[in-house]
Amino acid sequence: MKTNRSTFSLYAGFTLTVLGGMIFGVTGLAAGSAATLLKPLQPILPWVFLIYPLLLTVRGDINGILTGKLGTALHLGTIKPSWRKNTDNFIELIVLIFFLSIYDAILIGTVTSIIGILMKLYTLPFNPLKYILKIFAITITTFVLTATVSMLITFLLAFFIYKKKKDPDLYVYPVTSSVNDIIITIVFFLICWVYRPWEENVHLYLFLGIPLLVISTVFIIFAIVKLRQSNFFMKGISQSLPVLTITNLIATGTGSVLASLSSILSPIIIVFYPAIISSVGSQNSILANTTSTKLHLGSIKPSLKSLKTQDFLITYLGIVTGAILIVSLMSIIGVLLFPQGITFLIYLRILGLLLITNFLSFVIISVIALSAAFLSFKFGLDPDNLVNPLLSSSADLVTTSILVLMFILLF
After folding, report:
1. Cα–Cα distance between 59 and 143 in angstroms, integer?
2. Which tens digits make up the pLDDT trace of 255-288?
């Protein structure tokens, strides 16, 4: 009986910890509310719902690398929880994240341009060069701004949590993921309106966005030349770039699904969209980051036997329980914010839609996350460079697909 009480106590304590980290996932409703502002842009920018999921996914990928590497570095002592007199790895991590942000902005611009043309997501008359330049200007400006704000928030939060003797792996990604979704949604919307790419006589994107792209490209070249001798930086690039390239292609599937079916989705589902993909991403990030840290510390081995331990079962069930509570709360708040036409029966459908989508997505992606963590560690690679980007993009694609499918079945 004593063992059972002790086990339950550990489970309850971990579940409460997960809830503490994931409670900010509810703020994803703010990102969803902001995303409804993109609806009026769709007739004049038909590619807006193609690029939006890519921005969310890739920002999540990079944030996953940042939070994963930062959490592990704080545990290992290779980065100090301080802004002053920090280690070389601290500076190199900042440069690495800017590098990856710029790389992904360029990659997203390329992918969106190609897929947008293939799907005919443009207005007539169509000028391919202007079309491509406008997309590149918007993506690079959005990413540079969000990367700056995101890193500031992430470092402040991670340092604060670590100084309070809490585990950054449990809190930082869930909190910053939700905050980043809000930031990138608002920045993306504002950049679109400031650049006004649908107006032929407005050329701000040429005088601001394109020079920013050139400066960013020069920064990439300078960073490689300056830090080519740094094992931390070069290892981060060599291991992250291939994965980010693959995850961008996966994210393209997410964008294509949403762009193709956005017209049939009701506004209330768009409100929940960033929150539910953030929730699934946060759950798997907690699982991946805690697993990665334990692998680095040597407290677990990259073996299936580790999945049978009490520690893993408590972690897994605690995440599932926390998610059920958070998603239920999310459904209530979302409906209270947008009550128009919502009856009790419709609310039950929405609740079922969110719970089923969240549970199925988490189960599927957790298999990918754990497999990637164990395999990468076995082959001498750093899971922090690989797992979070892979699970973030996979989670968004799987969650989006299941969400749309469940919407069609239930509504």
Report:
1. 8
2. 777 776 666 667 777 788 878 887 888 788 788 8
Alpha carbons within 13 A on the beta-carbon side of 129: 1
Q: Which long-range contacts (CB under 8 A, 24 or more apart) does 404-407 make?
A: 404/257, 404/258, 404/261, 404/265, 406/352, 406/353, 406/356, 406/357, 407/265, 407/269, 407/353
Per the listing, tokens 């040429």 go with 206
Number of folded domains that form the chain: 1
Give dist(CA 261, CA 265) in Å, integer.
7
Share of the chain above pLDDT 70, in %: 94
- The residue written with tokens 């004593």 in the block is 2
Query: Quick one: CA torsion of 232, 237, 239, 244, rounded to 10 degrees?
Result: 140
| First-to-final CA distance of the chain | 47
DSSP state of 300: S
- 161-183 confidence digits (pLDDT tens): 999 888 887 778 777 877 888 88
Structural domain including 74 reads 2-410
- The whole-angstrom distance between residue 260's C-alpha and the CA centroid of its chain comes to 21
